Structure formats: C-alpha cells, structure tokens
Amino acid sequence: MNSATPTADAPLLEMQGIQKSFPGVHALSGVDLVLQKGEVLALLGENGAGKSTLIKILAGAHRADRGMMRISGDPVTLASPAAAISAGVGVIYQEFNLVPGLSSWENIFLGREEGSLFVRRTAERKRASEIFEQIGARIPIDAPCGQLSIAQQQMVEIAKALSQEVRIMVMDEPSAALTPQEVDKLFAVINRLRDRGIGIIYISHRLDEIARIADRVMVLRDGKYVADRLISDVTRSTMIEWMVGRTIDDEFPKRSVSIGDTRLQLKKLRREPSVRDVTLEIARGEIIGVTGLVGAGRTELARLVFGADPMEGGEVWLDGRRLKLHSPGDAIRAGICLLTEDRKHQGLVLGLSASANFALPNLAMLSTLGWVRHRQERDRFRHYVDTLKIRLSSPDQLAGHLSGGNQQKLVLSKWLEQNSEVIIFDEPTRGVDVGGKYEIYTLMNELARQGKAIMMISSELPEVLGMSDRIIVMHEGRITGTVDNVGDATQETLMDLAVG
Amino acid sequence: MSNESSLRSRLFADYGMFFVLAVLASLFSFLTYKEQHPTGSDAGRQVAEIVEESREGPLHVMIVARGTAEDREFTSAAREGLASNGVTVVAVVNGEPRDVRLEVERLSEDGQSVDLIVANDVASRWTVYDRIPELKMTPRVTPRPYYGADFLKSSNLIGVANQTAIYAIIAIGMTMVIVTAGIDLSVGSLVALAAVSSALFIRESGGVDASSAVVIAGVIGGILLCCLLGAFNGVMVTVFQLPPFIVTLAMMMMASGLAFRLSSGRSIAELPESFFALGGGRLMGVPNPVWLMVGLYVVGHILMSRTVLGRYIYAIGGNEEAARLSGVPVKRTLLAVYTVCGALAGLGGVVLASQLEAGDPKFGDKYELHVIAAVVVGGTSLMGGQGKVLGTLIGAFIIAVIKNGMNLTNVDPFNQKIVLGGVLLLGVLIDTMKRRPEILTRLFSQRG
Ligand SMILES: Nc1ncnc2c1ncn2[C@@H]1O[C@H](COP(=O)(O)OP(=O)(O)OP(=O)(O)O)[C@@H](O)[C@H]1O
Ligand SMILES: [Mg+2]
Fold first, then answer.
1. Are B165 and B47 in a shared domain?
2. Nearest to B322 among A79, A80, A347 (CB)
C-alpha cells in the first residue's frame, strides 16, 4: 500500500471516468469528481441524475462498469461496503439501512461490535449516547429503530457514520427529513468534521442549505458532469439552470382560489402521547400547512385521520357527515387519502413494478369484476409519468429501482389518481428536485382549485410559507399556534411557535 | 424488434426453469434410449400382419403371453387379427410357462398340431418350448423391436404427469401463500384428513353400494372440511396475528391426529367403483387428475396475473404496510389465500383417495415438503412478493422428471434422496443468481 509516488498534495479523493449502466438506463456516463481534504462538496442534480449511483460506487455498494478511483493518490477498488469502510469511506444513504428490531446503539455498531465473543454492551451504549449528545439528537436510545420517526432514524444513520473512523464522509440527502433546528445541528457536526480535515460529499435538493454549508458545488445532469464551481462563484439561479437546463423564476406558483365552506372537521382527536385533543377545520379549496419539530405529532395526526392507527377519542367529519374510520380502506372510500412520508416502508411495494404500485389504491377504478384492466392502468399511469416527469425506463421497472425523488413522484401519482376530497401530504417534496417541486406545487394548486381540502405536513419552512393559506404549528401533540395571515409570517415566527 | 427480444429475455427470466426442465427431459431421453419391444394391442395387430406376410397356406397358430392386462390386450388383438385373415388359432395362453405345457398336452390329446407360435417379446424368450418335444421345431413370431427412449413413451409421460398432478394442485395454493410471505405446513395432514373423512362418509353411507349422490357429497364434504381448516389458519394469522409457521405447524399435528382418530388408524377401503372414477378415470387417454391440474393452473395463473386479488397478494407479500396504507384489505386477502390453500389440499386428498381406492391417515406424509420444494424450485421467493404459478408447475415437473428419470435409470433410492436435496438447493441457487448477478461477480472478482 506504500506507493513511492508523493501523495502529500494528492487530492483526498479522485473518481475518474465513472460509468454505470442498469438494464435500460445509463445512470452514469464518464463522471469525474475530485474532493479535497477539509472540503464540503455539494453534489447537485435532478431526480435520477445519478447522484446516489455515484456515491454507491464510492461506497462499494455498486461496481462501476468503467472508471477508476484514488484515495490520497492510491488507486483503490472498492469491491464491497466493507472494503469502502476500511478505506475510510463513511456513507449516510438516502434510504435508511437500519434493522428495525434492533435499538439505535445496536444498529450503530452493527457489524463492528466491540469485544471478541460477547458484545460489550455498556461500552457501546455509552459511546452511542455520546455521539447523540454531540449531534444534539434526542433519541430513546433503547427503543427499536422501527419505532423511531423518520427524522430520528436519520439521526441514527448520521450517528452510525460518525462512529466510524472516516476520511471521506458521504451524505445522501441527510436533511430531507429534518426540521431547521436539526439541520443546524447537522451543520455544526459537518463543520467540526471539516475542521478535522475530513472531506465531505453532501447531496441535497435544498439549495439554501447548499449555500450555507458547501465550499464547492458540482452538478450532474442525465448521468453526465455539467459544472463544478466554488460556492462563492455561483448564484442560486445558475445552480438551478445547470440542474434543470432552464431557469425557474418563481419557485412557488401563484394561485388565486376562493376558499369556500368547511369540508374536513377534526374534533378533539386524541391518541396519547403523540396527538392530544387536536381540533382543526379545513375548507374547500384551502391548503393548510402543518409544521412543527420532529416528534410534534404531525404524522401521527395524519395517520389518525386516515384510519391507519386507532383513535382514542375524537371525531372526524367530512362535509357534515361523521366518518367511522377503522382502516385506511375506510378512509379511502370516504374520500380521504394520505401520502406517507416514508416511501420505502409505507409508500411503495418496492418489488412490484411502478405501474402496479400506481394502480394499488386505484384498482377499484381500474378493474371490472375483479379483473385488472391493464391497458387502462398503463394509460392512466402514462398521464402522470408525463405531468410529474417521472423518470423510468418503462412502467414495468421495479419501484425499488427508481431514484429516490422519482419514487416520491410515484407515490404522489398513485394518490392523485384517487381524486380524493381530502388529501393529506406528508412531506410531499422530500427528496424531489427543484423542477419536480414546482410540478407538485402546481398540482396542489390545481387540486385546491377543484375544491379539495388539502393538508400539507412539511418541515421545509419556505415551502410551508410559500404554499399554505393557513399554517398550523404543532408541539408535543397539540396545536400551539395558527398563522392566518401567511403573508406576514417568517420562518422565525414559525420556529418560535414550534418550540412551544 | 427490441420489444420482442426484451419479451424473450423476460420469458427467460420468468420461466428460466422451463429450460432446465427441457434439458432434464432431453438428458433422460438420451439415457433411456434403447431397444424397445412393442406391447399391448398395437403389438398384437403387428404380429398378425407379420404372419400374414409370410404365410403360404393354412396355419394352426398358438398365441402366448403373460397374464397381465397389457399382455391380454396383446393376445386378443393378435387373435382377432389372425382370425380375420383366416388363420386358425388353436390355442391362447395368458399365463406362465407351465400353462403352455398344459395347453400342448390338451392339444395333442385332441390330435391337434401347432405350426406356429405367436408370442410377445417376454413370452417368446421362455425356455419352456425347448423342453416340449412337440414345440421344439415350431417357429416363433414376435413383434418387431424398435429403438426409442423409455422416458418418452407416452405411458411413461402420462404416468409422470399423473403422479405429479396432486402435488402440483396443492402447490398452487402454496404458491399463493408463499407469495404473501407466509407458509402452510398443514397441507400434508389436510390431504390425509380429506381422504379419510370422505372415505369414511361414503363407507358409512352405503360403502361399496353407495350411490353417486353419496360419493359426490363425500367428495365435497372432504374438500369443505379442509377449506374450513384453511380458513381457521387464516383467522389465526390475520385476526390474532400469529406467525403462519406456528399456526400451520399446529394445524399439521391436529389434522393428522384427527385423521388417525376418525379412521382408528386403519385404511378405509370399502368404497364404490364410482368413487374411483375421479382419480382413476381417463378422458381422451389422459388421466382425470392431469386434466384437473391443467384446468386449475389456468385458473391460478389468471387469478395471480390478471385479477385484483392477485395484485393484492403480490402487494401484501412485497410490503404489507404499504399495501395496507394503500387501502388493500390485507386481512380479507390473507384469509382468502389460506382458505384456498386448505381447499386445494383437500381436493388433493380426495383425488389421492380415489386414485389409491382407499382413505388412509398415512396419506400425504411429507407432502408439505415436496410441495414447498416445487414452489421454491419454480422460482418463488420465500421472502414473499415474488413468484409465478406457472413457475411452480414447472418446479413440480422438474422434481417429478428427476425422480422418474432416476427410477428408469435404476438409481438406488437412497441416492435419489441425496440428488433431490441437491436439486432443490441448485434450483434456488440458480434462481437467486439470476435475480442478483452481482453476488457472482463479487465472488469471482474477489478471488481473481
Ligand atoms: N438498481 C437499479 N436498477 C435499475 N435502474 C436503477 C437502479 N438504481 C438506479 N437506477 C436508475 O439510475 C438512474 C440514476 O439513479 P440515482 O438513484 O443515482 O439518481 P439520483 O440522482 O440519486 O436521484 P434522486 O435525486 O431522485 O435521489 C435513475 O434513472 C434510476 O432509475
Ligand atoms: Mg438519490
């Protein structure tokens, strides 16, 4: 391993001419990437541009068809995740890889248990809680990871990567599920890593974050290198132009809707400890933004309204009728749908084709007497592939083989087809690129114009401020604030309400 | 063009096991290729022609064969053919060498001589003729031998299909269960229970003289009982959320115990002919169970690939929570799947009882394992969410063909078991590597 070439001034990481194809897709065609010590490189690109594929190659999870990699000047072949870890590459994947039945600290040290025969449990547990302390995550340390919220799981993933001795840290959309506070903590961690000389590759679709944390940006489009600049030399609109290939002036499409009579009424909804006496009304054509810290009970509220969890008290009324919701099936029939935040576990059947996933809640409409009408299923799905610009090689491509953002669009398509009266979006643009967000917002406006009642749960404050007619802020299961006059609100107002 | 080739590659990916089956069939055809002797009525007609071709004047012929059904067909066809050609058949022997001697003694008492012996291959090689002075010089005529594969004889192929039919029928239900990421270990015991309970009902309602209405009621009753027990499995799995492995393991014990209790551990054989028609009868030369299997596979394939229920089954196996949140009636679907699996096991049991002309609590022993093996070899993943009904059919046939081929090539039964275990492992291995080729590339790239 000791090569004679001087490696002192070699970059920390060089990837050259990386190519990778999947059946029917050229995910990467000849991409170069250079990362220096103590640098944060932001990797940008549309959904399906190849970002995750590139870093999976670096992580040894995929093998490049062609190309080479050097770490500190030494050529490396990272044939397996284990090889990548021992080469000092730590990765936080876009999709989580936690064992649901194990606790957070067991997950963190999985595969690298301390002690030769017996696991040194107390040592591991202590070390884990130190890391959580360090990144400011409040996590029930012994709870099985399957019971943690998405944001908490994200923090566990971050802690897991931090627990390793890394020289290169890759983060694939780590902030997608986090609220601003948690993002701040994450950035503090990143800054500490940078000071220690660790090179960081940071992937995100949130451009304001990029401006805050990155030293340099690199943009991919359609699996090809587009540009690479210091952050001080680029503006937000050039980044967007590089990614999308055109300019987008206004990120939130304008809308003029008259808000009508009340449609959805929630009366003292309760399920301890996450939802406590929530009362809320949503009117015809109204978009209600729901925000709050992670663990505020927003998702749990949505699940109650959708019949996914049993209620302990309270009533749901729609158009003056009281609904009895025992299962999601009941809610769907009553005209309520929920776009879940966790697409991998709740949103999609990854082993089924994209079009079959699309059809799943809509089979009543897409079948006659129990027979699936394939032609119609295809046609309807095509419609959404076009409007949402879902990137796939064919409708038969497995949902699990779509890029993260495209999976999110697929989840959206299946619920939009439902044409429900009440639509609850839980983090609808999580992992979606700028262009895709715009399409989704346009669709939301269109739904509102048709007179639907819309509830949008989101941690992304610009989105909440940009899209909502009214904003509800939750804290520890209760509504702690309502903003009626959205035009006057700022991110700070919302944050103040969120901390209770 | 590219569409076509992608279709072909998909067919190969989906039904790659079909090629394995084809290769096995060719292999065993090759290994069992040898001299064949015609049998049955075809052979009888053929010898009559041979005799006619070389005949110069009147002949007194004696026809010899063994006492089996096939040999009787031979003798009667030969006698008819010869008689219609004007040849005098002086004697017909269906039996053992001893019977030839008795017959010749009778003939010589009557002063009757024999000019020609017509025999099938086996009977012509008896040594008895040399020890009877009257027959020492008599020429013998046999059907002409030809070359062919034992494996490909229609009687053998039909036999293979017939022996596979019951496993294959049960495997349809098992495929559905396994696609939902479940398992049903109770099918073997349900086979026994169905066989015993319908046989018992028929015996108690008339026995050998039971009317066909009773037979029909017994058959349906046996199936319904298993249907109910399957539904019970389903309720335990859905309503009480117990693991399918445990629920069906318990059912396996209980159903088997019940079958032994009902029958007091004895075989129930006092059954009417009409009951045997179901499993023993033929339609256009093909046994009824094979027709039943074909029909059920058509239905099963359509159900899984074209209907809403099929979609639900795959979705639940792939991601139960996502399916539930998409409004899929998860419990109802699972209940239906376990019920169907139980019912098909019941059907298998009744057909088996009809084939073997008895109801015995020892029927169906280890069937669950054979059936699961067929499903897995057919490419269905035990993780759920993936698998094809037609793949299962191919899997069942792969196992059956291997068993049959080994019997034909005289592989010792103990070795057969070893081979079958290996085949199961190999089947799953091939299938997994096909789905996840990166395992292989990684394996080799690390070594090399
Ligand atoms: N295992 C796979 N099989 C087939 N195609 C795949 C597979 N993984 C990725 N792809 C395809 O490769 C392309 C690049 O995907 P990738 O996940 O790298 O995109 P991304 O830039 O990370 O997008 P996003 O922002 O949505 O996460 C996509 O078109 C995707 O459909
Ligand atoms: Mg990605």
1. no
2. A347
